[in-house]
Structures are given as C-alpha cells and as structure tokens.
Design goal:
The protein is an all-alpha fold and 178 residues long. It has eight helices and two strands; from the N terminus they run E-E-H-H-H-H-H-H-H-H. The chain is 56% helix and 2% strand.
Length: 178
C-alpha cells in the first residue's frame, strides 16, 4: 500500500500532498453522502452531505452570495478524503487540523478561488447554526447558546445516500454553472 487513497471515481489521491487535479466533486458528493454526522451517534442516519446541503440552503435563505452558498456546500469537502474527527478531539490534534485546513483550502481554491475573511466567517457561522439545530432535533440537546434562527426549513431526517449525492451535485452545478 502506498500513501494514496483510491476514490470513488478511481483516482489515486495523496491526502497529505493533494493536487487540485486529483480533487473531484463527484468523489466529494459520493463520500459525504455516505459519511455519518455526529460520529454515528444520532438515532438515525444523517449524512455530512445533507448537513452541507442544509448549510448551502440556509445561506440562500439569508440572501448570501452564490460564493458563500458554494463555500457552505464545500466546507466539509476535505472530510471526503480524510474522514472526520469530532470537535472535542480535533482540538487536541494540531497536525490533523493543519492537514485538514491545507486540503480544504486547496478544494476551495480549485472551485472558487481564495475566500475572503468575511466569506469564511459566514460559512463558519452557518456551520454552527446547523450544528445547533441538528443536535436539538436529533438529540434534544442544546450544545451551545443558540447561534441564530434558521431562515430555511431543513428536514433533519434520513434520506437515501443516492438522493443526497444527486442533490449535492445539483447544488454544485447550479452554483458553478457547470
């Protein structure tokens, strides 16, 4: 075995030394549609892909630019290549966070160029808003002080991964005109 992973589209990608040409939105959509949120502790399957779509829809409902909507859709794309580690653990893994940030920046740059500080602030805020409502819906738990009201109407429920994958790609194409 080498240092690479084989992706859904049969690319051989080096997660620690990624090249933009090895990153593929079809790989991202497929992997995130199958990747479970909350490390599998919600009572029903709910994917990272669904979370990203809901973030994107929330950005649209708030009237944010298509760039911010796309940033919301892509904000967890590095997890398609690295998997995820829960926030309480991740803070103790600075090297992992460095790798994740490097890969995420390459993904953003490939599909939308460099994000401004304001764009980054907006997608991070919506990530927290969705996290709050996901935990409230699935677990009846308020993880933090409410970070703001939802403007969209996300459905926090299980959907077939194929549907999530298709919706993710539809959003991506709509926002990139591809």
């Amino acid at each position: 075995m080498g240092e690479d992973i084989t992706t859904y589209t049969k690319r051989h990608m080096l997660p620690l030394a990624p090249k933009p040409e090895d990153i593929c939105v079809e790989d991202i959509a497929h992997a995130l549609s199958l990747m479970v949120r909350a490390n599998g502790h919600f009572p029903r399957f709910y994917s990272v892909g669904q979370h990203c779509i809901h973030c994107c829809e929330e950005a649209l409902a708030r009237g944010y630019t298509p760039r911010v909507q796309l940033a919301c859709l892509l904000h967890d794309a590095s997890e398609a290549y690295l998997a995820d580690i829960t926030r309480p653990v991740k803070r103790y893994l600075p090297k992992y966070k460095e790798i994740e940030q490097m890969l995420q920046e390459i993904i953003f740059e490939k599909y939308m160029g460099v994000l401004s500080e304001e764009e980054t602030k907006l997608w991070r805020k919506l990530d927290d808003v969705l996290l709050y409502y996901e935990f409230d819906s699935f677990m009846g738990e308020k993880l933090m002080e409410c970070p703001g009201q939802l403007q969209s109407c996300p459905v926090f429920d299980t959907e077939p991964f194929q549907m999530t994958e298709r919706r993710y790609l539809e959003w991506f194409r709509r926002l990139t005109d591809q």
